[in-house]
Amino acid sequence: MDLVLSRLDVPHYLHPTYPPIQALNETGGLYTPDNDDDDALPLKTAAWLGTLAGVFDQFPDLKLVLGHMGEMLPYMLTRSNSLLGPTKTRGASLPETYARNVWVTTSGFFSLDPFATVLKTTARDRIMFSVDYPWATNEDGVRFMEGVEGFGNGYL
Questions:
Q1: Is 53:98 a contact under the CB 8 Å cutoff?
Q2: How far is residue 94's CA from residue 48's CA, in Å, rounded to a whole number?
Q3: pTM
Q4: Is there a contact between 71 and 45 (Cβ–Cβ < 8 Å)?
Q5: pLDDT by residue (tens digit) across 10-63?
Q6: Could you tell me if 43 and 73 are in contact, meaning their C-beta atoms sit under 8 angstroms apart?
Q7: Residue 131 in contact with residue 137, Cβ under 8 Å?
Q8: CA 49, CA 75: separation in Å to the nearest integer?
Q9: What pLDDT was estimated at residue 80?
Q10: 85 vs 49: CA distance, rounded Å
């Protein structure tokens, strides 16, 4: 089996999108994850990584970029590994797969507390700054980066 993304050595950026039109219609346009019939997005994302961990064993050079401070994976990594890890009987563990194959962007999540978690779970050379315009502004990003400059070791 050949995976073009892996062969070309280019990253795959996963980014959430708008909900299906049916979900918008059923909620009168007031769709939120709270009225989604599926599980919450963070759980879906964590389970998704667990389910696809075997794909990263088959394609160890596959690069995955997750926006919005990692789409909750940095926060769910330990729990996902404890719940889903035992079902993965061969290959790299979930934390190993995350460390080897995942990059994270800030994507408008301009808060130091979540950033502290990302710093604890993600190698610094795998964290990328991004703004997520128009939902966040460049000015918001500048203020965040100024706060990061003064970010003390007390968080870490």
A1: no
A2: 11
A3: 0.79
A4: yes
A5: 998 877 766 677 766 776 766 555 545 444 455 456 556 666 668 888 888 989
A6: no
A7: yes
A8: 13
A9: 84
A10: 11
